[in-house]
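quick one
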Amino acid sequence: MNITQCRIIELPKIGDPRGNLTFIEGGRHIPFDIRRVYYLYDVPGGAERGGHAHKGLHQLIIAVAGSFDIHLDDGCGRKTIHMNRSYNGLYVCPMIWREMDNFSSGAVCMVLASEYYDETDYLRDYEDFIRTTKEAGR
Ligand code: TYD
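structure w/ thymidine-5'-diphosphate:
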């Protein structure tokens, strides 16, 4: 898996003078079925989240409110994406190291995930992550 597979997916947006509505259907708008949803909120200014990769998990990350930056790294290349639209999701495939920072006040980061929470799916050490990407490339 590499960074070029990580992309912004524009989600459906139903505009209405009463307010906008966005919806997401697993397997239709995003390339996996949704097993779990979690969200980050009340993130203090200057805080950093993430700092890990997943061996098998697929995720869609959305700035439901406010904004933040996501830094992606596949062991070969890096890119940073500024998230600030409630109708855009960033698809992150397995084996991508991600870090998140620059959270605005009131930001809410919602994550749709393909699997239940499983700590054994995490790579939390960067050197370990790099070693694992090299082994997979052999
Ligand atoms: P972590 O994934 O490290 O947070 P982030 O990447 O946003 O910085 O998770 C933080 C803690 O929350 C960690 O102890 C594991 C726990 N957790 C769950 O119990 N269930 C979940 O679905 C998630 C995402 C985390």
